Amino acid sequence: MAEGNGTNGTSGPNGTPGGAGSDEPKSKISVLLEDSKVVKEKALEEIKALKQPEKTDLWKSILRVKHDETPRSRALGVLSNVFLHLHPAKINRDAVAYNYTWGMGGMTFYIYITLVFTGTLLMFYYHPSKVVAFRDILYLEHDVPFGKILRNMHRWGAHMMVIMVELHMFRVYLTGSYKKPREFNWVVGVLLLVLTLLLSFTGYLLPDDQLGFWAVTVGTNMARATPLLGHDGPFGPQMGMTAFNDVRFGLLGGSIVDSNALLRAYIWHCIAIPIIATTFMIVHFWRVRKDGGISGPAPVMLESEIKEPRKI
Amino acid sequence: MDLHQLWTILSTPDNVPIVLLLFVIPFYTWYGLRQSFANDRLIAQLEKDPVMAKTHHRKTQPWRPGWAREVHVWPYLLRIEFLAAIILTVILMVWSITLNAPLEEPANPTLTMNPSKAPWYFLGLQEMLVYFDPWMAGVVFPSLIIVGLMVIPYIDENPLGNGYYTYKQRKFAIWTFLFGFIALWVSMIVIGTLIRGPGWMWFWPGMTWDHNRLTFDVNRDLPDIFGIKNRIGKILFGGIVVGIYCVAAWIGVHMAIVRDAFGKKILARMSLLQYATMQLMLILMLSLPVKMILRLVFRIKYVWVTPWFNI
Predict the structure, then answer these.
(1) Is ipTM > 0.85 here?
(2) What pLDDT was estimated at residue A18?
């Protein structure tokens, strides 16, 4: 479409008058009109080309590969896309039915993304300080545009995530998907379950209301009973534990749930645990692929087909 | 019957997930087991007919020769994922529009909430505080749950049921998980949320949460019932009782495994370390319902009383 560019300037305004002046020199206006006709045609041609945007260099530069109906393109469309590349190009035909996976793992990840998004927005309106934390929530609920739905989505999303993680584990167990070669990914999954619960728990204190305060008080009071490391636990006093140096003190940054505890909960909730959880999620998803994709639905195996275990 | 009280408990915003659990957990249990039983029927059929076993595609899903065994992720999986994301977003938004997140009064260390409850997913652990001391219920058992879950793949030597629903080929494993997950974890959460009222007292659904209710439970220790008064006697007696429990539970678990020939076969595949780990985890898991019965039915607080710890 860029063809002919620059070749139509033969009769341009700066062109030398041809011949021995037999023709009247064209008027400047007619030259200009002729030129504009060329520009117009070029513009029309370019607009026509826009009807096939996938042929443009811009398009190709963004998407890298062709997207047509060929199987090769379908595969490349998934494999060469950074957001989709965790998928294989093809999967077990029976695995796309809802009844096998229940979709819980993928939906958990989606809810996690939703939580990161709403959580980031909430951070704009929240100060992790005993003086203003509660007022920030009131402000968020009554003055911030869409503040209430933002907080609600974060809260209910967190509850949904906990339920979904548990159901995901339930499904993986019922289908025996933790068996060879996926043993280690189950371990990573258990860690992710713990991290999910910790994420939810650290978030509970942040509104700094009675609900969160007493929930965290009850929760961290258990830490004081840690054997050896808590001042109320078995053999704790013998180890020299007091309320000011035991494991609970480390969690709360003090001997009571106060401003330090609020700040610690905030940092664990917004920075530390999300980074740790994201790291484990990367490992989890990576291992799903490396261990051969999702486990089934696999052909059933019969008892008579059990092979003898390999001795080490 | 105090319906208003019942409604107050069920409609508390933070209790809504538990109400949800009451429907979702039975549904998915049924949904999974239904497929297990369907596969079991297929397995029984194939075991009876070796010729069929050689040619059958071995799934309950339909299959015809000439069908591709795999489908493209785009569009067959991705469109489902996009759809799931949209539906989930709609559900979350509708839920968020209709129901507000709870916000109580500002935190006040001088005004104790009664009952003061942990977030719902920890209520199982809080309920455990009734039956065990905090170092057990709050620290040892949660750690054991995590470790116990992690070791499952390394002690389950049953090669069957890998990647498909089945009940018959994994009876022991399925029962263990259903017991741990539904009978213990989920039902303890439900008890902690719906049953436990002020003072962490037991209120049946429909009973009014009376803040002035007094109960005169006499909690006894097992050695006291047997009239053992001196300290060393208590230590020895408790140790012996706990030991007897461990041996009994060990035998019980063992009997459950070797009930059928298949169980014996799997047991023969297990190493001693795998067997010991499994027994340890199951004995500790079973101690919870045992202690619950002792406490709720016989009002026995401790079995083993020592100067350093009580169990």
Answers:
(1) yes
(2) 47
